[in-house]
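Quick check before the chapter quiz. The format below is the same one you will see on the exam, so make sure you can read both the input and the output lines.
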Amino acid sequence: MNKVVLISDSFKHSLSSIEICSVMENAVLSVYPNCKVIKIPVSDGGEGLSDCFLSIFKGQKQSVITVDPFGNGITSTYALLDDGTAVIELAASCGLRLVRQKLDPSTASTFGFGKVIRHAIEAGAKKIILGVGDSATNDAGTGLASALGVRFYDQNGNQFVPNGGTLGKIADISISDIIKGIDKIAFSTLCDVKNPLYGTNGAAYVFGRQKGADNEMIAMLDRNLRSYSHFLKNKYGFSTEYEGAGAAGGTTIATKLFLNSQIKRGINTVLEMVDFASVIKNADVVFTGEGRLDKQSFQGKVIDGIANYTAEAMIPLIALVGQISGIKATDYPKGLTAVYPLLDVIVDLDQAIKDTAINMMNTMIRICKDWDKAPCQ
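Here is the expected output.
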């Protein structure tokens, strides 16, 4: 190997994308000490997005006092790049990892995410990239909007901050008090799912259970999302019928409606910004990784986005994964050459997570040592 590109997502509850790329690099150089190694830690919009941007582009991490999904005070962070771009991830203020002991998407709010966005606006950000993965919320971003000055009213004219359980009560909206200057900022919202806002494939039915909802709550959340969607359509002519409307409990609804944000695939945006087509030129192989490889992995997520480039460039793409679930080799997208699980045998999940780094190192070394004999086999 003369040139290798390492570009991995994080492994949830284990290693960050930056840590994964470092382990991969050490493994490659232990076998090919003179190999040129290029590391690109990435995120598709979830946890670790701002750190990934700071590892690639020049900038500083900003600290903000905000609230978690249930109104408890926390300190969150975002990246402010030297070119004036702010990179803000919802996971750092409204993510599942912050509220593991209290999951309730009927009362969880994106208000804290909005407070962080407000801080970036007041700090003079010229462009804002929002990552909306790993949310604990289902409020269609109404909390976010409220933090930016949008006012929601019920049928009696009472102002309130909606959540997943009260979206259906919205009877009127006012943007007269929205933060000044917001219309001069270019917003992009990065998400990694294509789900609609409501229905059997929507935000509540697909993602509600992992956020703590039971069957009864899921049905209620879906009714409220449907009600809010019809309200927006009938009163303001705003359609929620677009790909990714159900991302992060419908948070993209608020970013599109109130921030005029473009909705983009997270991995595609990162790959474009780093000019990935040029980066992989003349590479012998591209290595990537993901904690769990399943059918969703090939629906706009990290591996899927990378495979589009490697297929075009005819460069081998090898994925190292913690777990393979419900797919076989014939399901792989064009451009994905081979997949290697970190373990050949089933072990305790907690132990597997704990041993991710050593298992990653050993698997990478094995692949590298066998490369000249039978690459990608």
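If your answer matched, good. The CA atoms of residues 31 and 368 lie 7 Å apart.
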